[in-house]
Amino acid sequence: MSRTPPPEGAARTEAPKDAPVGAPVASRRGAPVNDPVAGAPVVAPAGAPAATPAAGPAANAASGSAAVPAEKPGAGPAPPVDARALAAALALLALLAARAHAERGAPLVWAALLGAFAGLALHHARFGFASAWRRMTRERRGAGLRAQMLLIGLTCAASYPLMQWGAQIGLPARGHVLPIGAASAIGAFMFGAGMQLGGGCASGTLHALGGGAPRMAITLAFFVGGSVLATAHWDFWSALPRTRAGASLPQMMGALPALAVTLALLGAIALASAALERRRHGALEPPARAGDPLRGPWTPGMGAAALALVGIGCFLALGRPWGVTSAFALWGAKALNAAGLPVQEWTYWSGWRRGALEASVFADATSVMNFGIVLGAMAAAALAGRWGGGARPDLRGALTAAAGGLLMGYGARLAYGCNIGAYLGGLASGSAHGWWWLIWGWAGSALGTRLRARLGMDPPACPPRA
User: Fold this and answer.
1) Residue environment code for 232-263, b if the CB has 16+ CB neighbours within 10 A, otherwise e
2) Are 91 and 165 spatial neighbours (Cβ–Cβ below 8 Å)?
3) SS3 of residue 78 by DSSP
4) What is the pLDDT of residues 132-183, one digit of tens each?
5) Above pLDDT 70, what percent of the chain?
6) Rounded to whole angstroms, what are the CA distances from 85 to 142, 210, 386, 461?
7) Helix crossing, 365-383 with 106-125: angle to 10°?
8) Which residues have CB under 8 Å from 90's CB, separation 6+?
9) CB of 274 closer than 8 Å to CB of 146
10) Which neighbouring-strand residues pair with 296?
11) Using one digit for the tens of pLDDT, what is the confidence trace for 379-399?
12) For residue 456, is it left (φ>0), alpha (ψ between -120 and 50) or beta?
């Protein structure tokens, strides 16, 4: 698909900063336009006021589309609620909760509801990990990165005390404290590159799919395939050098001192991003405005607070951090097992994982949460009147989605998880492997961002301020 800029005076498009591929794009002239990657035709209401351009030509989307400034709430009449899609999402969520309850009772009902709320928040806030890192790398715009620091800080403020004292009040919680080593560094690097090519991180893939983005179905399919492929090579990767055990700040220092150190580090990252943004642009990007609480859009801060509630809810209801990608490996393994491949003989699927392989997928809390994310995002898109409508991706879009999904799936297994399970979950556990994942994941993301530019997936970055 051509990336030639439109002639001067041609209609320009507007899309939310973290909109998934296939998300509606508004034309200033009310004419049908196409998402630069997905090619999804949509129409803005004729005569709707134009959105104010943001500093920098590209507010990169979580999906990987060439993004442009966010649409202002109230700019023209809102699309009507898609009642059929909303009813379908709620009915499927009720069925999911009922089936999960039949398998393992109330904790899995909470998993379904937490997943649905996460999908709603991810969609309404357009909360993207991939897009936030890409914008910081390309444009030195750090609002998305600062929202991530807020999300992690709020989660840690509850998870650290819960891990230390929760059992005393009947709320036992444990973190994931895991080793660091060569395999986890390689895996995080692969994931970081893959999420830029694939158009979204693990949670972003699920919520964009729920919002009706066809390209993300390709990303998810290859995400699952890469995840199970990594389990076949588990013996090789687990033999590479690594620490004998993980390191936990709360265990070494106690919950409150560890929380102070963690918040100081997160604050330093936020302040550094703001300083870099001011140096490049002279000022911070104006904050986004919130729309209707039920129909969206939400600000990044609202999204961070809502997702922190999801992360804290996982500690309360499931006794452990939020995770996503272990379910993808399970889905792939179950598919191969059903096809006659003896997956259960692989080392990765021995021991406690054998039980998950033999049980129903609705007995797995991570799977139930993932299904909930898709349905919650579907409900959110229906409430916003923007569900579906995405066109099939072109050849480049399909190939980059496949490559990104494969890299993310394989990398997530080596790195003990993704941006949610290893990055957010690791830091919420006070584990050093969360910081390790951040370092190597960021490096991979920087490479992936360069690859996107080479492939013409993004418009040229804005020049530095004179």
Assistant:
1) bebeebeeeebeeebbbbbbeeebeebbeebe
2) no
3) coil
4) 999 999 999 999 999 999 999 999 999 999 999 999 999 999 999 999 999 9
5) 82
6) 34, 11, 10, 37
7) 40
8) 379
9) yes
10) 292
11) 999 999 989 777 788 999 999
12) left
Looking at residue 264, the DSSP 8-state letter turns out to be H
DSSP string, 339-360: TT--GGGSGGGSTHHHHHHHS-
Say what the pTM is.
0.84
Say which DSSP state 199 is in.
T
Tally the C-alpha atoms within 13 A of residue 276's C-alpha that lie toward its C-beta: 17
Burial of 432 (0-12, 13-18, 19+ CB in 10 A): buried
Q: Of the candidates 49, 50, 51, 67, which has an alpha carbon nearest to the alpha carbon of residue 59? A: 67
Sign of CA dihedral 164, 168, 173, 177: positive
Give the whole-angstrom CA distance, residue 68 versus residue 14: 6
CA distance 287 to 312: 26
Cα separation of 229 and 248, whole Å?
Answer: 30
Q: What is the DSSP code (8-state) at residue 12? A: -
Give 92's Cβ-side CA count (13 Å radius): 19
- Amino acid, res. 277: E
**DSSP annotation of 166:** G
pLDDT of residue 370: 98
Sign of CA dihedral 150, 179, 196, 387: negative
Q: pLDDT tens digit string along 299-323?
A: 999 999 999 999 999 999 999 999 9
Residue 291: enclosing H or E segment and its boundaries?
Answer: none
Token pair recorded at residue 63: 């999906």
Buried b (16+ CB within 10 A) or exposed e, 326-357: bbbbbbbbbebbeeeeebeebebbeeebeebb
